Amino acid sequence: MMKKWFMTMGISTVLLGSVLAGCGNNGGESTSGENSNDGEVTQITLTGWQSSPQEQKYLDETIALFEEQNPDIEVTISTIPDSYMDVLRTRLIGGDGPDVFYLDAFEAPGLIETGVVEPLDEYISEDFDLDDFEQPLLDAFRGDDETIYGLPKDTSTLALFYNKDLLEEAGFDGPPATWEELEEMAEALTTDSTYGYGVVPDLARLMFMAESNGGQVVTDNQASFGDPAVVEALQPVVDMRNEAGTAAEPSEVGSDNGGEMFALGRAAMIMEGNWTIPFLDENFPDVNYGVAEIPTINGEQGTMAFTVSYVMNAASDKKEASWRLIEFLTGKEGMEAWTASGLTLPTRASVAETLDYTDDEIYGPFVAGTSYATVWSDDTNLPIINNNFGNQFISAFLGQRDLGEALKEAEDVANREIQ
């Protein structure tokens, strides 16, 4: 289904390379000025990061498609390979920022607050069809006054990967539907060489679970993950490792990440993102795996969503051309080209249907999660809160500290830093 469409379309594989290859300078200099009617070209810059050579190819192809349809605009792509936000902020402050750039939902509230991001409401026309976006993803880039500052270019969610062969050997005919079933199956699946469940113990993966009992990780822009309701929600994950012995993190079995831990058979089940699909298919084609939505917790569905938007530099003097680029890349045609690879998923429901992701047995669970996911974003202090959570949660997960004590200490430290 998907591979046939991809071979026919062939349009998404060059894309990220151009974004990564160029170099941004003051939004780019125009050879003739914006909106020129004399056949000359307006040059704009787009800055982002590169996750893989595949991603580069898809970005290049999508930009090439835009330039073919907009011959009066030339896009120069620049990549920031390391410390993206630090470098980007320095460029923006110094007046050397790009016209258009990637902005992760995690960092969006803080950067929007500075005033360097252009509001987009006045550019968005009715036929752009904002309602087609999955609303939690779009809302991640709204300001406090509901103004839209960015349009989500793609998303990734979490789902449950399970090894079909290992489940069958243990007598199971399918994946768990509830968290209680997952715990029971993990016990049966754990052997001398395999853990029933692999855990990546960071807040970006666990935030939806932490809030499943009614507690909040962040309240009024302050850390609140020491709340007993949060501790109670996360305790089962800790207990699976320290009490039942049925869970472990990747580094405990010599793996660098969750996908590798699963691929090597060191975990029978793991919660991972859709980026794991091409990793498995290309590097571990013999692994017989399935994908399901995350098991329900307290009867409720949940997962995490990670999304990045295209935003415009408020200081750009090429705003019309910049908007035309954003409009194309987040419109139906551009998004279809960009997300055809499966590396990331569309943020528009119509594009997910066009690409047959919605009913696909592998991609479908990820698409389903976009409607109820907790977006990896919050207020401006989430980066500080996240750092302090990670400092202490891992110690509890590894059995070195009581979870409640660890999270309370981390909460207090985070809030002192915020103040």
Automatic annotation (TrEMBL):
Name used for this protein in its record: Extracellular solute-binding protein
Signal sequence annotation: 1-21
Keyword Iron: no
Regions crossing the membrane: none
Keyword terms of this UniProt record: Signal
Organism: Alkalihalophilus lindianensis
